[in-house]
């Protein structure tokens, strides 16, 4: 079930030389509550400079997105161009400029041309329709192999829907940069609380995945809540809020896992689950260290239950640990107990787990209650090929 | 010129199934001043547990090293075995146990067998001779493609020599882990001052290189100064100390660069030089972020002057920066000025620089006087092959 009160359109504007769809518009029937999370990279693309203060007002009605050019490292002209695309969209929709967000993804360092926007924005507005967000998801793709859409539906007393659309397959190419995610709901919720829920959901989804450890200049997650379902306001501390948070978390985690599965060259999606850490920060740091290790990721590709690389990556993560307490298992197969190998039979069984496309590596530190997961892909020849050959 | 008063030997003890040399002994004629730096990984191999407190006494006369087994993640039995190898060496040499250091490199998590040591240590002692350290360097190799030896010679009023021997080609395999480096000099210098000089030299050499960003459980650098050259004591704050520090730094930087050149699958050795940072810590953090980026390293392999990846890696390094001030050049070719591309002609010229085996990427942040370099290799198919296929 799509959330009510949203319309979508997409076109091939000509920014992409391939003539594939590369520009899309999402419009809410009314100004929605909104929340946003942006890249922590200090090199920030022009659309983020323009969109961040708008999202901070807590209200948004339209999102204009293009692929094929990231409008990053483009100087003052890049910011001016982003402002102009906002003005064109607001004028065509007949709404305030402050209600328009813009996002870009694609080549870094190449000036973003305005003419494709001048030509295409009127067409995007004219073709807006409810129904499917598939065309939008397609127009956002760069190196993505498939569109990424996830949804949730609440069917209680106050029914509503949540729809998430994302793109990204790693940092990836700064030429083909960026993780973008737009989440739309027709639930009613204030922007401050929405921002709080978004931060929590991002921590356990998009901030817990890694393809190559690189962070793009354009990463953006926006959530719009337009209240079009007609339900009650969802307030902090209520059961309804907990239900909404669960739905939001699940939609975003589903999208995050899709991004890892679509990681450049990825053949596997592996959950690195750290339990028994001193606290959740330690658990997250250890999981991240293992998930981003090139050696661990290469071993996954080689289907090698190489726990030495895993334990070493935990060791240099900087967390509190006692190496003599560490247990490691692959799915249900224990392979290390108290920091020492259990034996070759277990390693052989773990080798069979590694042949699967998805599996879970559980690392128990036996120090406390801290628990966190990271999702990662394998590192293989195709990753090298995609990233070495792209611009040549 | 080899430093005086050291003897060497190496044998094939049978730890390596290949029957290649895998055990070596370095002995000083008298107890030498010593200093050491060990892995910051919290998962620490048994030989480090045993050797660290010995080096802390400031005196050392013999170093026993084996390849083929790292004696890491081997529990209390591993520590006991390391202690036994110390005892065997001390007995065969007729010296105190506290004067013997041991190092291991190779497979993680497999018990280290004592019999090869029982058989080989008497032979190693019997065959000790001055002359060449080549056999020692060879016996330390695991995935290394070549032996790594560097030297320096001071020929002033107080002449002395410095000899450095290293192994390592990345973390690399925790199966085949570890960076090891032994530096021998016949200069006279107290252990406390030697330790201070070593810390500084390591910061600009072994702690400024990266192949894959992983840190092994066994990394060890030891320096012995036996005074056999008969010169004056080298004291802090003197001209002689500055000269000695320069020699030590250069020997260790030479070895560090050899390790990067021998990085698994490496075809290029690239210096990432950050200048104009707020301070040296910022410069180091930015250089490290660029040098460890999989995307940057893959672009080097693709010989692609992909500055977008470089500027993005600077951006997520967490340092103070102003993206509108960043300049980037490849060797002498400027490619980015004030955060924006200079133009396609410069990118084409920079592309020619990337065809070289070694080159320098200079990133000027224009914020202060901070300066630091990291040395890195490219990431390519062979890296994946070596690391994915090893245990299969």
From TrEMBL, chains A, B:
Function comment: Catalyzes two activities which are involved in the cyclic version of arginine biosynthesis: the synthesis of N-acetylglutamate from glutamate and acetyl-CoA as the acetyl donor, and of ornithine by transacetylation between N(2)-acetylornithine and glutamate.
Name under which the protein is recorded: Arginine biosynthesis bifunctional protein ArgJ
A Gene Ontology biological process term: ornithine biosynthetic process
A GO-annotated cellular component: cytoplasm
CDD domains reported for this sequence: OAT
Record note on quaternary structure: Heterotetramer of two alpha and two beta chains.
Site (Cleavage): 177-178
Protein species of origin: Pelovirga terrestris
Gene that specifies this protein: argJ
Catalytic activity: N(2)-acetyl-L-ornithine + L-glutamate = N-acetyl-L-glutamate + L-ornithine; L-glutamate + acetyl-CoA = N-acetyl-L-glutamate + CoA + H(+)
Organism lineage string: Bacteria, Pseudomonadati, Thermodesulfobacteriota, Desulfuromonadia, Geobacterales
Residues that bind substrate: 142, 167, 178, 264, 387, 392
Location in the cell: Cytoplasm
Broad enzyme group: transferase
GO molecular function: L-glutamate N-acetyltransferase activity; L-glutamate N-acetyltransferase activity, acting on acetyl-L-ornithine as donor
Pathway membership: Amino-acid biosynthesis; L-arginine biosynthesis; N(2)-acetyl-L-ornithine from L-glutamate: step 1/4; Amino-acid biosynthesis; L-arginine biosynthesis; L-ornithine and N-acetyl-L-glutamate from L-glutamate and N(2)-acetyl-L-ornithine (cyclic): step 1/1
Pfam families hit by this protein: ArgJ
Family: Belongs to the ArgJ family.
Residues under site feature: Involved in the stabilization of negative charge on the oxyanion by the formation of the oxyanion hole: 105-106
Catalytic residues (positions): 178
Enzyme Commission code: 2.3.1.35, 2.3.1.1
């Amino acid at each position: 079930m799509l959330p009510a009160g949203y319309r979508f359109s997409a076109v091939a504007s000509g920014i992409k030389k391939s003539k594939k769809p590369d520009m899309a518009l999402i419009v809410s029937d009314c100004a929605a509550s909104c929340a946003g999370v942006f890249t922590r990279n200090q090199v920030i693309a022009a659309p983020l400079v323009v969109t961040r203060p708008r999202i901070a007002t807590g209200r948004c009605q339209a999102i204009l997105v293009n692929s094929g050019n990231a409008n990053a490292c483009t100087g003052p002209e890049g910011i001016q161009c982003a402002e102009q695309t906002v003005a064109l969209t607001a004028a065509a929709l007949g709404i305030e400029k402050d209600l328009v967000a813009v996002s870009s993804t694609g080549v870094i360092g190449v000036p973003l041309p305005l003419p494709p926007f001048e030509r295409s924005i009127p067409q995007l507005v004219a073709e807006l329709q409810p129904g499917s967000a598939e065309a939008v998801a397609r127009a956002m793709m760069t190196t993505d192999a498939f569109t990424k859409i996830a949804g949730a539906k609440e069917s209680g007393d106050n029914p509503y829907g949540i729809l998430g659309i994302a793109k990204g397959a790693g940092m990836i190419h700064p030429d083909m940069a960026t993780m973008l995610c737009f989440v739309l709901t027709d639930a009613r919720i204030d922007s401050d609380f929405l921002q709080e829920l978004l931060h929590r959901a991002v921590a356990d989804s998009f901030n817990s995945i890694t393809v190559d450890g690189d962070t793009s200049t354009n990463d953006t997650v926006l959530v719009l809540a337009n209240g079009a379902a007609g339900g009650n306001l969802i307030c902090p501390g209520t059961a309804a809020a907990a239900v909404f948070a669960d739905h939001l978390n699940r939609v975003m985690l589903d999208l995050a896992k899709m991004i890892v599965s679509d990681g450049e060259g990825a053949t596997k999606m592996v959950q690195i689950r750290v339990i028994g850490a001193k606290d959740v920060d330690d658990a997250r740091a250890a999981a991240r260290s293992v998930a981003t290790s090139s050696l661990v990721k290469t071993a996954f590709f080689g289907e090698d239950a190489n726990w030495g690389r895993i334990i070493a990556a935990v060791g240099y993560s900087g967390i509190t640990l006692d190496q003599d307490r560490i247990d490691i298992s692959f799915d249900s197969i224990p392979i290390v107990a108290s920091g020492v190998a259990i034996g070759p039979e277990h390693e052989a069984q773990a080798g069979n787990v590694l042949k699967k496309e998805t599996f879970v590596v559980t690392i128990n530190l036996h120090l406390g209650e801290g628990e966190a997961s990271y999702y990662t892909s394998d590192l293989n020849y195709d990753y090298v090929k995609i990233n070495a050959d792209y611009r040549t």
